[in-house]
Amino acid sequence: MSFAANTFSQCFINGDWQASESNQTFSVINPADLQPLTKVPDCTAADAESAILAAHQALNDWQQQPAKSRANLLRQWYNLILEHQDALAELMTLECGKPIAESRGEVQYAASFIEWFAEEAKRVRGDTIPAPSKDRRIQVIKQPVGVCTAITPWNFPLAMITRKCAPALAAGCTIVIKPAEGTPLSALALARLAQEAGLPAGIFNVITASQGKEVGEVLSTHPLVRKLSFTGSTAVGKQLLAQAAGTVKRTSMELGGNAPFLVFDDADIDKAVAGAMASKYRNTGQTCVCANRFLVQAGVAEAFAKALAEATRGLKVGPGLEPDTAQGPLINQAGFDKVQALVNDAVDKGATVLTGGGPHALGGLYYQPTVLTDVTGDMRLVNEEIFGPVSPIMVFKDEAEGIALANDTPFGLAAYFYTESLSRSIRVAEGLEYGMVGVNEGILSTETAPFGGIKESGLGREGSHLGIDEYLETKYLCIGGLSE
Asked: Does the annotation count 322 as an active-site position?
Protein backbone atom coordinates (compact mmCIF):
# COMPACT_ATOMS: atom_id res chain seq x y z
CA MET A 1 0.00 0.00 0.00
CA SER A 2 1.48 3.37 -1.06
CA PHE A 3 1.39 6.38 1.22
CA ALA A 4 3.17 8.71 -1.16
CA ALA A 5 1.57 12.15 -1.09
CA ASN A 6 0.66 12.04 -4.79
CA THR A 7 -1.45 8.90 -4.31
CA PHE A 8 -4.12 10.88 -2.46
CA SER A 9 -6.20 12.77 -4.99
CA GLN A 10 -9.80 11.93 -4.02
CA CYS A 11 -12.06 12.31 -1.02
CA PHE A 12 -13.74 9.35 0.69
CA ILE A 13 -17.56 9.20 0.77
CA ASN A 14 -19.72 6.14 1.35
CA GLY A 15 -16.77 3.79 0.96
CA ASP A 16 -15.82 5.22 -2.45
CA TRP A 17 -12.91 7.37 -3.55
CA GLN A 18 -14.23 10.23 -5.63
CA ALA A 19 -13.61 13.74 -6.90
CA SER A 20 -15.61 16.69 -5.67
CA GLU A 21 -18.86 17.36 -7.49
CA SER A 22 -17.31 20.55 -8.89
CA ASN A 23 -14.17 18.69 -10.04
CA GLN A 24 -12.14 21.51 -8.47
CA THR A 25 -8.93 20.80 -6.57
CA PHE A 26 -6.41 22.64 -4.40
CA SER A 27 -2.73 22.13 -3.69
CA VAL A 28 -1.25 20.77 -0.47
CA ILE A 29 2.01 22.59 0.32
CA ASN A 30 5.07 21.26 2.14
CA PRO A 31 5.92 24.02 4.66
CA ALA A 32 9.58 22.92 4.75
CA ASP A 33 10.27 24.00 1.17
CA LEU A 34 6.97 25.60 0.09
CA GLN A 35 6.65 23.13 -2.78
CA PRO A 36 3.31 21.48 -3.68
CA LEU A 37 2.94 17.86 -2.61
CA THR A 38 -0.25 17.00 -4.50
CA LYS A 39 -3.75 18.22 -5.24
CA VAL A 40 -6.90 17.06 -3.45
CA PRO A 41 -10.61 17.66 -4.08
CA ASP A 42 -11.95 21.08 -3.18
CA CYS A 43 -15.28 19.92 -1.81
CA THR A 44 -18.37 22.09 -1.64
CA ALA A 45 -21.65 22.12 0.23
CA ALA A 46 -22.97 19.50 -2.17
CA ASP A 47 -20.17 17.10 -1.24
CA ALA A 48 -20.83 17.71 2.45
CA GLU A 49 -24.50 16.92 1.87
CA SER A 50 -23.59 13.68 0.08
CA ALA A 51 -21.31 12.60 2.91
CA ILE A 52 -23.95 13.33 5.55
CA LEU A 53 -26.57 11.36 3.61
CA ALA A 54 -24.14 8.43 3.32
CA ALA A 55 -23.51 8.54 7.05
CA HIS A 56 -27.25 8.66 7.72
CA GLN A 57 -27.95 5.68 5.46
CA ALA A 58 -25.23 3.64 7.18
CA LEU A 59 -26.30 4.59 10.71
CA ASN A 60 -28.98 1.99 11.43
CA ASP A 61 -26.91 -1.03 10.45
CA TRP A 62 -23.86 0.24 12.31
CA GLN A 63 -25.66 1.02 15.57
CA GLN A 64 -27.33 -2.41 15.44
CA GLN A 65 -23.93 -4.12 15.30
CA PRO A 66 -23.02 -5.78 18.61
CA ALA A 67 -20.53 -3.67 20.53
CA LYS A 68 -17.98 -6.46 20.30
CA SER A 69 -18.22 -6.45 16.49
CA ARG A 70 -17.61 -2.71 16.37
CA ALA A 71 -14.72 -3.16 18.79
CA ASN A 72 -13.13 -5.86 16.64
CA LEU A 73 -13.24 -3.68 13.53
CA LEU A 74 -11.74 -0.74 15.41
CA ARG A 75 -9.02 -3.00 16.73
CA GLN A 76 -8.17 -4.11 13.20
CA TRP A 77 -7.94 -0.45 12.18
CA TYR A 78 -5.62 0.19 15.12
CA ASN A 79 -3.36 -2.68 14.08
CA LEU A 80 -3.10 -1.38 10.52
CA ILE A 81 -2.16 2.11 11.71
CA LEU A 82 0.70 0.69 13.76
CA GLU A 83 1.74 -1.53 10.87
CA HIS A 84 2.11 1.56 8.66
CA GLN A 85 3.28 4.01 11.32
CA ASP A 86 6.55 4.96 9.60
CA ALA A 87 4.81 5.79 6.32
CA LEU A 88 2.09 7.73 8.14
CA ALA A 89 4.68 9.69 10.11
CA GLU A 90 6.58 10.67 6.97
CA LEU A 91 3.37 11.79 5.27
CA MET A 92 2.46 13.86 8.32
CA THR A 93 5.85 15.58 8.41
CA LEU A 94 5.62 16.38 4.71
CA GLU A 95 2.29 18.17 5.04
CA CYS A 96 2.62 19.90 8.44
CA GLY A 97 6.39 20.20 8.93
CA LYS A 98 6.75 18.70 12.40
CA PRO A 99 9.95 16.79 13.22
CA ILE A 100 9.77 13.15 12.20
CA ALA A 101 10.28 11.93 15.78
CA GLU A 102 7.23 13.91 16.86
CA SER A 103 5.24 12.57 13.91
CA ARG A 104 6.06 9.00 14.91
CA GLY A 105 4.89 9.79 18.41
CA GLU A 106 1.66 11.26 17.10
CA VAL A 107 0.88 8.17 15.02
CA GLN A 108 1.11 6.06 18.16
CA TYR A 109 -0.91 8.63 20.11
CA ALA A 110 -3.58 8.68 17.39
CA ALA A 111 -3.76 4.89 17.34
CA SER A 112 -4.11 4.80 21.12
CA PHE A 113 -7.54 6.47 20.92
CA ILE A 114 -8.78 3.77 18.56
CA GLU A 115 -7.48 1.05 20.86
CA TRP A 116 -8.95 2.72 23.96
CA PHE A 117 -12.41 3.28 22.53
CA ALA A 118 -12.52 -0.15 20.91
CA GLU A 119 -12.33 -1.41 24.48
CA GLU A 120 -14.80 1.19 25.79
CA ALA A 121 -17.37 0.13 23.18
CA LYS A 122 -17.97 -3.00 25.25
CA ARG A 123 -18.38 -1.03 28.48
CA VAL A 124 -21.35 1.24 27.65
CA ARG A 125 -23.72 0.49 30.50
CA GLY A 126 -27.18 1.52 31.63
CA ASP A 127 -28.91 1.44 35.01
CA THR A 128 -31.80 -0.19 36.78
CA ILE A 129 -33.37 2.19 39.29
CA PRO A 130 -35.70 1.19 42.14
CA ALA A 131 -39.23 2.10 41.07
CA PRO A 132 -41.71 4.06 43.25
CA SER A 133 -44.32 1.27 42.98
CA LYS A 134 -44.24 -2.49 42.55
CA ASP A 135 -46.05 -2.44 39.18
CA ARG A 136 -43.25 -0.51 37.46
CA ARG A 137 -39.62 -0.98 36.47
CA ILE A 138 -37.25 1.89 35.67
CA GLN A 139 -34.39 1.32 33.30
CA VAL A 140 -31.85 3.72 31.76
CA ILE A 141 -30.12 2.82 28.52
CA LYS A 142 -27.46 4.53 26.41
CA GLN A 143 -27.88 4.87 22.65
CA PRO A 144 -25.73 6.49 19.96
CA VAL A 145 -26.41 10.16 19.25
CA GLY A 146 -26.60 9.56 15.49
CA VAL A 147 -24.75 11.13 12.58
CA CYS A 148 -21.75 13.16 13.75
CA THR A 149 -19.49 15.66 12.02
CA ALA A 150 -15.98 16.73 12.98
CA ILE A 151 -13.80 19.63 11.89
CA THR A 152 -10.17 19.08 12.78
CA PRO A 153 -6.99 21.22 12.87
CA TRP A 154 -3.66 20.96 11.06
CA ASN A 155 -1.30 20.76 14.04
CA PHE A 156 -2.22 17.17 15.01
CA PRO A 157 -3.66 15.88 11.72
CA LEU A 158 -4.09 12.26 12.84
CA ALA A 159 -4.69 12.43 16.58
CA MET A 160 -7.39 15.08 16.44
CA ILE A 161 -9.35 12.87 14.06
CA THR A 162 -9.03 9.64 16.01
CA ARG A 163 -9.82 11.39 19.29
CA LYS A 164 -13.21 12.26 17.78
CA CYS A 165 -14.04 9.43 15.42
CA ALA A 166 -12.97 6.54 17.67
CA PRO A 167 -15.52 7.24 20.43
CA ALA A 168 -18.18 8.10 17.85
CA LEU A 169 -17.76 4.81 15.99
CA ALA A 170 -17.40 2.83 19.21
CA ALA A 171 -20.71 4.25 20.43
CA GLY A 172 -22.48 3.26 17.20
CA CYS A 173 -22.49 6.66 15.50
CA THR A 174 -21.36 7.42 11.95
CA ILE A 175 -19.18 10.40 11.12
CA VAL A 176 -18.08 12.90 8.47
CA ILE A 177 -14.61 14.42 8.88
CA LYS A 178 -13.49 17.74 7.41
CA PRO A 179 -9.71 17.98 8.01
CA ALA A 180 -7.80 21.26 7.90
CA GLU A 181 -7.03 22.43 4.39
CA GLY A 182 -3.30 22.40 5.13
CA THR A 183 -3.17 18.75 6.21
CA PRO A 184 -5.75 16.62 4.40
CA LEU A 185 -3.38 13.78 3.46
CA SER A 186 -3.17 12.21 6.91
CA ALA A 187 -6.96 12.09 7.05
CA LEU A 188 -7.17 10.42 3.65
CA ALA A 189 -4.50 7.90 4.65
CA LEU A 190 -6.55 7.11 7.75
CA ALA A 191 -9.59 6.53 5.54
CA ARG A 192 -7.61 4.17 3.33
CA LEU A 193 -6.66 2.08 6.37
CA ALA A 194 -10.25 2.17 7.67
CA GLN A 195 -11.40 0.74 4.37
CA GLU A 196 -8.76 -1.99 4.50
CA ALA A 197 -9.77 -2.79 8.08
CA GLY A 198 -13.28 -3.56 6.85
CA LEU A 199 -15.21 -0.63 8.30
CA PRO A 200 -18.57 -0.60 6.47
CA ALA A 201 -19.22 1.99 3.78
CA GLY A 202 -20.65 5.26 5.00
CA ILE A 203 -19.65 5.12 8.65
CA PHE A 204 -16.38 7.06 8.16
CA ASN A 205 -16.25 9.77 5.50
CA VAL A 206 -13.58 12.37 4.70
CA ILE A 207 -14.18 15.52 2.67
CA THR A 208 -11.39 17.99 1.87
CA ALA A 209 -11.91 21.70 1.22
CA SER A 210 -9.71 24.77 0.82
CA GLN A 211 -12.30 27.15 2.24
CA GLY A 212 -14.01 25.64 5.24
CA LYS A 213 -16.78 28.19 5.77
CA GLU A 214 -19.28 26.81 3.26
CA VAL A 215 -18.66 23.17 4.17
CA GLY A 216 -18.56 23.99 7.87
CA GLU A 217 -21.96 25.61 7.66
CA VAL A 218 -23.47 22.42 6.23
CA LEU A 219 -21.76 20.24 8.84
CA SER A 220 -23.04 22.44 11.66
CA THR A 221 -26.60 23.08 10.42
CA HIS A 222 -27.74 19.98 8.56
CA PRO A 223 -30.85 18.51 10.25
CA LEU A 224 -29.59 14.92 9.94
CA VAL A 225 -26.47 15.77 11.97
CA ARG A 226 -26.94 15.32 15.70
CA LYS A 227 -23.42 16.03 16.98
CA LEU A 228 -20.63 18.39 15.94
CA SER A 229 -17.08 18.21 17.29
CA PHE A 230 -14.58 20.97 16.54
CA THR A 231 -10.98 21.69 17.45
CA GLY A 232 -9.70 25.10 16.44
CA SER A 233 -9.88 28.78 17.26
CA THR A 234 -12.35 30.25 19.72
CA ALA A 235 -13.66 32.67 17.10
CA VAL A 236 -14.59 29.89 14.67
CA GLY A 237 -15.90 27.73 17.51
CA LYS A 238 -18.31 30.46 18.55
CA GLN A 239 -19.57 30.75 14.99
CA LEU A 240 -20.11 26.99 14.73
CA LEU A 241 -21.89 26.94 18.10
CA ALA A 242 -24.26 29.63 16.88
CA GLN A 243 -24.96 27.67 13.70
CA ALA A 244 -25.45 24.40 15.58
CA ALA A 245 -27.93 26.07 17.91
CA GLY A 246 -30.49 26.26 15.12
CA THR A 247 -31.06 22.50 15.32
CA VAL A 248 -29.95 22.14 18.98
CA LYS A 249 -27.07 19.82 18.16
CA ARG A 250 -24.81 18.26 20.72
CA THR A 251 -21.37 19.88 20.48
CA SER A 252 -17.84 19.32 21.67
CA MET A 253 -15.55 22.33 21.39
CA GLU A 254 -11.79 22.29 21.99
CA LEU A 255 -10.86 25.91 21.40
CA GLY A 256 -8.02 28.36 21.94
CA GLY A 257 -5.72 28.50 24.91
CA ASN A 258 -3.35 30.84 26.71
CA ALA A 259 -1.51 28.38 28.91
CA PRO A 260 0.45 29.75 31.87
CA PHE A 261 3.61 27.98 33.06
CA LEU A 262 4.34 29.00 36.64
CA VAL A 263 7.70 28.46 38.32
CA PHE A 264 7.77 29.06 42.08
CA ASP A 265 10.79 29.91 44.21
CA ASP A 266 10.92 26.39 45.62
CA ALA A 267 10.86 24.67 42.21
CA ASP A 268 13.60 22.40 40.95
CA ILE A 269 14.88 24.69 38.18
CA ASP A 270 16.41 21.91 36.09
CA LYS A 271 13.13 20.00 36.10
CA ALA A 272 11.18 23.18 35.37
CA VAL A 273 13.34 23.99 32.35
CA ALA A 274 13.02 20.44 31.04
CA GLY A 275 9.24 20.66 31.42
CA ALA A 276 9.19 24.07 29.78
CA MET A 277 11.13 22.81 26.77
CA ALA A 278 8.78 19.85 26.36
CA SER A 279 5.68 21.99 26.72
CA LYS A 280 6.69 25.07 24.74
CA TYR A 281 8.68 23.80 21.78
CA ARG A 282 6.76 20.66 20.82
CA ASN A 283 5.63 21.01 17.18
CA THR A 284 7.54 24.31 17.03
CA GLY A 285 5.19 25.81 19.61
CA GLN A 286 2.14 25.10 17.48
CA THR A 287 -0.08 23.27 19.97
CA CYS A 288 -3.17 24.44 21.78
CA VAL A 289 -1.81 23.31 25.15
CA CYS A 290 1.79 24.51 24.87
CA ALA A 291 2.99 27.08 27.39
CA ASN A 292 2.08 30.55 26.15
CA ARG A 293 3.18 32.63 29.18
CA PHE A 294 6.00 31.84 31.60
CA LEU A 295 5.23 33.28 35.02
CA VAL A 296 8.28 33.02 37.28
CA GLN A 297 8.60 34.01 40.92
CA ALA A 298 11.12 36.81 41.47
CA GLY A 299 13.60 34.76 43.48
CA VAL A 300 14.35 32.37 40.61
CA ALA A 301 13.41 34.49 37.59
CA GLU A 302 16.97 35.27 36.50
CA ALA A 303 18.22 31.71 36.94
CA PHE A 304 15.24 30.23 35.10
CA ALA A 305 15.46 32.69 32.21
CA LYS A 306 19.19 32.04 31.76
CA ALA A 307 18.76 28.26 31.82
CA LEU A 308 15.75 28.33 29.46
CA ALA A 309 17.59 30.55 26.97
CA GLU A 310 20.61 28.25 27.04
CA ALA A 311 18.46 25.18 26.39
CA THR A 312 16.54 26.98 23.65
CA ARG A 313 19.75 27.95 21.83
CA GLY A 314 20.57 24.24 21.60
CA LEU A 315 17.51 23.38 19.52
CA LYS A 316 18.31 22.27 15.96
CA VAL A 317 16.10 23.98 13.39
CA GLY A 318 15.56 22.36 10.01
CA PRO A 319 13.33 20.25 7.77
CA GLY A 320 11.28 17.78 9.75
CA LEU A 321 12.53 14.74 7.84
CA GLU A 322 16.11 15.30 9.04
CA PRO A 323 16.50 12.96 12.02
CA ASP A 324 18.18 15.48 14.37
CA THR A 325 15.70 18.31 13.76
CA ALA A 326 14.00 19.56 16.93
CA GLN A 327 12.18 22.53 15.38
CA GLY A 328 10.56 22.49 11.96
CA PRO A 329 8.98 25.32 9.96
CA LEU A 330 5.82 27.14 10.90
CA ILE A 331 2.76 25.91 9.06
CA ASN A 332 2.22 28.83 6.65
CA GLN A 333 3.02 32.45 5.95
CA ALA A 334 0.13 33.76 8.02
CA GLY A 335 1.37 31.85 11.05
CA PHE A 336 4.94 33.08 10.49
CA ASP A 337 3.81 36.70 10.11
CA LYS A 338 1.75 36.52 13.31
CA VAL A 339 4.70 35.22 15.35
CA GLN A 340 6.95 37.97 14.02
CA ALA A 341 4.32 40.64 14.70
CA LEU A 342 3.88 39.45 18.29
CA VAL A 343 7.63 39.50 18.93
CA ASN A 344 8.00 42.95 17.33
CA ASP A 345 5.15 44.28 19.45
CA ALA A 346 6.77 42.94 22.62
CA VAL A 347 10.20 44.37 21.78
CA ASP A 348 8.68 47.74 20.89
CA LYS A 349 7.04 47.79 24.33
CA GLY A 350 10.22 46.99 26.21
CA ALA A 351 10.82 43.23 26.09
CA THR A 352 14.41 42.01 26.05
CA VAL A 353 15.47 39.28 23.61
CA LEU A 354 17.67 36.68 25.35
CA THR A 355 17.88 34.48 22.28
CA GLY A 356 16.25 34.35 18.85
CA GLY A 357 13.79 37.08 18.07
CA GLY A 358 13.49 36.83 14.31
CA PRO A 359 13.43 34.72 11.15
CA HIS A 360 15.91 31.86 10.98
CA ALA A 361 18.84 31.90 8.56
CA LEU A 362 17.22 28.99 6.69
CA GLY A 363 14.60 31.42 5.40
CA GLY A 364 11.11 30.40 4.32
CA LEU A 365 8.84 29.60 7.26
CA TYR A 366 11.62 28.86 9.74
CA TYR A 367 11.69 31.02 12.88
CA GLN A 368 14.35 31.18 15.57
CA PRO A 369 13.42 29.60 18.92
CA THR A 370 13.05 32.69 21.09
CA VAL A 371 13.12 33.67 24.77
CA LEU A 372 11.98 37.12 25.91
CA THR A 373 12.23 38.75 29.35
CA ASP A 374 10.88 42.04 30.77
CA VAL A 375 7.48 41.02 29.41
CA THR A 376 4.45 43.00 30.60
CA GLY A 377 0.70 42.50 30.47
CA ASP A 378 0.10 45.10 27.75
CA MET A 379 2.00 43.07 25.16
CA ARG A 380 -0.04 41.15 22.59
CA LEU A 381 1.74 37.82 23.14
CA VAL A 382 0.56 37.78 26.75
CA ASN A 383 -3.07 37.95 25.65
CA GLU A 384 -3.00 36.08 22.33
CA GLU A 385 -2.07 32.53 21.41
CA ILE A 386 1.44 32.73 19.96
CA PHE A 387 1.45 29.39 18.11
CA GLY A 388 5.17 29.59 17.55
CA PRO A 389 8.53 28.95 19.26
CA VAL A 390 8.50 32.02 21.52
CA SER A 391 8.81 31.96 25.33
CA PRO A 392 7.80 35.24 27.04
CA ILE A 393 8.81 35.47 30.72
CA MET A 394 6.95 37.57 33.29
CA VAL A 395 7.86 37.92 36.97
CA PHE A 396 5.51 37.67 39.96
CA LYS A 397 6.06 38.33 43.66
CA ASP A 398 4.03 35.73 45.56
CA GLU A 399 1.68 32.79 45.13
CA ALA A 400 -1.48 34.89 45.11
CA GLU A 401 -0.15 37.17 42.37
CA GLY A 402 1.03 34.20 40.33
CA ILE A 403 -2.40 32.56 40.40
CA ALA A 404 -4.10 35.87 39.60
CA LEU A 405 -1.85 36.46 36.58
CA ALA A 406 -2.40 32.90 35.38
CA ASN A 407 -6.17 33.27 35.58
CA ASP A 408 -6.24 36.72 33.97
CA THR A 409 -7.46 35.46 30.59
CA PRO A 410 -10.79 34.42 29.07
CA PHE A 411 -9.22 31.06 28.19
CA GLY A 412 -8.93 27.99 30.38
CA LEU A 413 -7.52 25.01 28.52
CA ALA A 414 -4.20 23.94 30.10
CA ALA A 415 -1.88 25.27 32.81
CA TYR A 416 1.42 24.10 34.29
CA PHE A 417 3.39 24.85 37.44
CA TYR A 418 6.49 23.69 39.25
CA THR A 419 6.94 23.55 43.02
CA GLU A 420 8.49 21.17 45.55
CA SER A 421 5.81 22.01 48.14
CA LEU A 422 2.97 19.52 48.54
CA SER A 423 0.66 22.05 50.17
CA ARG A 424 1.34 24.63 47.47
CA SER A 425 0.77 22.07 44.72
CA ILE A 426 -2.72 21.40 46.07
CA ARG A 427 -3.59 25.08 46.59
CA VAL A 428 -2.38 26.17 43.15
CA ALA A 429 -3.87 23.22 41.29
CA GLU A 430 -7.27 23.98 42.80
CA GLY A 431 -6.90 27.73 42.27
CA LEU A 432 -6.05 27.64 38.57
CA GLU A 433 -9.12 28.11 36.33
CA TYR A 434 -8.20 25.51 33.71
CA GLY A 435 -9.58 22.21 32.54
CA MET A 436 -6.15 20.52 32.72
CA VAL A 437 -3.24 21.24 35.05
CA GLY A 438 0.26 19.79 34.91
CA VAL A 439 1.91 19.71 38.34
CA ASN A 440 5.68 19.36 37.89
CA GLU A 441 4.89 18.00 34.42
CA GLY A 442 5.05 19.66 31.00
CA ILE A 443 3.19 17.05 28.92
CA LEU A 444 -0.47 16.30 29.66
CA SER A 445 -2.02 14.38 26.82
CA THR A 446 -2.96 10.71 27.05
CA GLU A 447 -5.91 8.71 25.78
CA THR A 448 -6.78 7.60 29.33
CA ALA A 449 -7.39 11.12 30.72
CA PRO A 450 -10.12 13.65 29.90
CA PHE A 451 -8.90 16.41 27.56
CA GLY A 452 -10.74 19.72 27.42
CA GLY A 453 -11.04 23.24 28.74
CA ILE A 454 -13.30 25.67 30.56
CA LYS A 455 -14.33 29.29 29.99
CA GLU A 456 -13.78 30.26 26.33
CA SER A 457 -11.53 27.25 25.72
CA GLY A 458 -14.39 24.91 25.08
CA LEU A 459 -17.11 22.47 26.01
CA GLY A 460 -17.00 18.74 26.66
CA ARG A 461 -14.18 16.27 27.13
CA GLU A 462 -12.28 13.97 24.77
CA GLY A 463 -10.45 10.80 25.74
CA SER A 464 -10.85 8.72 28.93
CA HIS A 465 -14.03 6.88 29.83
CA LEU A 466 -15.83 10.24 29.60
CA GLY A 467 -15.07 10.61 25.89
CA ILE A 468 -17.62 8.07 24.71
CA ASP A 469 -20.39 9.72 26.74
CA GLU A 470 -20.16 12.70 24.36
CA TYR A 471 -21.57 10.43 21.64
CA LEU A 472 -24.34 8.76 23.65
CA GLU A 473 -27.87 9.76 24.54
CA THR A 474 -29.43 8.70 27.83
CA LYS A 475 -32.91 7.20 27.50
CA TYR A 476 -35.22 6.55 30.46
CA LEU A 477 -37.62 3.58 30.17
CA CYS A 478 -40.61 3.46 32.51
CA ILE A 479 -42.11 -0.04 32.23
CA GLY A 480 -45.57 -0.17 33.76
CA GLY A 481 -48.53 -2.54 34.05
CA LEU A 482 -46.55 -5.21 35.84
CA SER A 483 -49.12 -5.90 38.59
CA GLU A 484 -50.67 -9.39 38.75
From this structure: no
